[in-house]
């Protein structure tokens, strides 16, 4: 049942890159409170005039956003847990996309949209922000990039379609709550796709594991 993992773990290259991906995620998570509060928070940002957000009054969808993001993430990991190639790619993408997100947050610092309702997310409050309310985690969207990673690594067509639809729904809820600008959510899929294409080429080129993605 776990034959693929036994085969993968016999590969030194696979083990090295898997460990590096995990260490990257740990380093990213460990640096977040300092980055958000000591580096990003004091940095002045720009407030955009987002015409899309102005079409509807803000509404708090924190619970729905929380359930949607974390339930799909857990389900995606569980249904792919026996596929070491998919898990490796997922972890590699997550680490690199989020380090790129830290860079973009610093280089293109934004202030929260007018009328924003701060997102209530206990995981982010504890492990990322170190506080209950934080509104400068903007460009580009971590929520949407995470969902895009799940779409890109998924090999089942039906699941790709389902997660894609839920990603669009999540983007609507984030915009409705004014947690993100439209630009934040448009940029996330592009960055995620570029990182995906890089790692498909990189992993396959090094023969880390026979990853078969379109």
Shape: globular
Sheet with the most strands, sense and barrel status? none
Order of helical and strand elements: HHHHHHHH
Give the termini separation.
25 Å
The tally of domains stands at 1
Mean pLDDT: 91
Q: Figure out the total of helices.
A: 8
Report the radius of gyration as a whole number of Å: 18 Å
Strand content: under 5%
Poorly predicted parts = none
Number of extended strands: 0
**Helical content (DSSP H or I, runs of 4+):** 55-70%
Structural class of the helix and strand makeup? Answer: mainly alpha
Task: Give a topology summary.
Elements: H1 3-9, H2 12-40, H3 62-79, H4 84-107, H5 122-129, H6 142-153, H7 157-176, H8 182-205
Helix pairs in contact: 2-4, 3-6, 3-7, 4-6, 4-8, 6-7, 6-8
Description of the molecule:
This protein is an all-alpha fold. It has one domain. The chain contains 8 helices and no strands. About 35% of the residues are buried. The mean pLDDT is about 90.
Short description:
The chain is mainly α and 214 residues long.
Features:
66% helix, globular, 214 residues, mainly alpha, 8 helices
